[in-house]
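ARCHIVE CARD
CATEGORY: sequence design from structure
SOURCE FIELD: tokenized fold
FIELD CONTENT:
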């Protein structure tokens, strides 16, 4: 392939810009032309496509968000939307596409693949909920952002002898809550993938107070319920002076960690290697610390991301 394009879609994630930079510069190094598509699939269908040269991706590796912007575009799930997108790609002479994003973005790449257009998926989402990879771009930055907030909240929770329910993002996945909860010494972690008993949660809070503990931190994944609803249900089992802190979209922003920058750089470079060989219909990931490529159809249709539930059990054992 001599001409490829990049788009970012869905929720932004720290490290997307590092991936854009890696794809662009590796492709240029290999003698290829690179085009950037603004606003994801919406920009693809609208023809909002521009040539990218080396200076265009300078000084972006440290920036959060995405310089190609993003937009929701459910219309791309239709045949009409997909055919319009392919028409635009052909109009610009683009032979392959790198899609950086999460589950919805991958399904867009899958649709293009099924219609014969070579697409490569790079996992970029803080949720870490993409099959075929142990970690996604943005996840490490997100859990470190949550961890910083947990450390700060612990200070005020201790000062007032309070229980804090900290609601974190993650859509229907509990990875952010799990990893940040273990790292932050949470008293309890509540995730969609593991059933919980509110009476048992209350008992853990009560037992901690009986031991003289001055604070209690409960990390709640948004896929379970919202923090205020959780607090109301907890109140039915006793008055624990509970307060709710919803971290929200602050977790998506900020400068990516070194781990996310390196991961994005590896993924971006490998995507270009695959397209240069004329290979598409793949998604990139990291499994057992090795960068791999998997068939995107098989990965999305037959596999499902599972969090490391051993972390849940570990936290239960060491937070007592």
């Amino acid at each position: 392939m001599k001409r490829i394009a990049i788009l970012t879609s869905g929720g932004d994630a720290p490290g997307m810009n590092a991936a854009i930079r890696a794809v662009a510069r590796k492709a240029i190094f290999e003698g290829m032309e690179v085009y950037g598509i603004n606003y994801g699939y919406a920009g693809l269908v609208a023809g909002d496509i521009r040539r990218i040269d080396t200076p265009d991706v300078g000084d972006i590796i440290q920036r959060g968000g995405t310089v190609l912007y993003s937009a929701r575009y459910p219309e791309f799930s239709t045949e009409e939307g997909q055919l319009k997108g392919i028409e635009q790609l052909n109009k610009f002479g683009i032979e392959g596409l790198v899609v950086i994003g999460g589950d919805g973005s991958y399904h867009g790449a899958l649709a293009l693949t099924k219609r014969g257009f070579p697409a490569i998926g790079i996992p970029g989402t803080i949720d870490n909920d993409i099959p075929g990879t142990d970690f996604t771009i943005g996840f490490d930055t997100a859990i470190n952002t949550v961890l910083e907030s947990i450390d700060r909240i612990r200070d005020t929770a201790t000062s007032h002898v309070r229980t804090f329910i900290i609601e974190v993002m993650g859509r229907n996945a509990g990875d952010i809550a799990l990893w940040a909860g273990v790292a932050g010494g949470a008293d309890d972690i509540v995730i969609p993938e593991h059933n919980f008993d509110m009476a048992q949660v209350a008992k853990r809070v009560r037992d901690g107070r009986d031991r003289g503990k001055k604070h209690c931190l409960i990390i709640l994944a948004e896929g379970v319920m919202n923090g205020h609803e959780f607090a109301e249900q907890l109140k039915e089992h006793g008055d624990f002076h509970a307060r709710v802190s919803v971290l929200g979209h602050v977790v998506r922003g900020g400068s990516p960690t070194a781990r996310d920058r390196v991961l994005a750089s590896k993924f971006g470079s490998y995507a270009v290697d695959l397209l240069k060989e004329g290979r598409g219909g793949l998604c990139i990931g990291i499994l057992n610390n090795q960068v791999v490529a998997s068939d995107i159809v098989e990965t999305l249709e037959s596999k499902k991301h599972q969090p490391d539930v051993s972390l849940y059990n570990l936290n239960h054992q060491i937070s007592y």
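CARD ANNOTATION: Residues 141-252 form a domain with the Rossmann fold fold (CATH 3.40.50.460). The chain is about 40% helix and 20% strand.
SHELF: design records, drawer C
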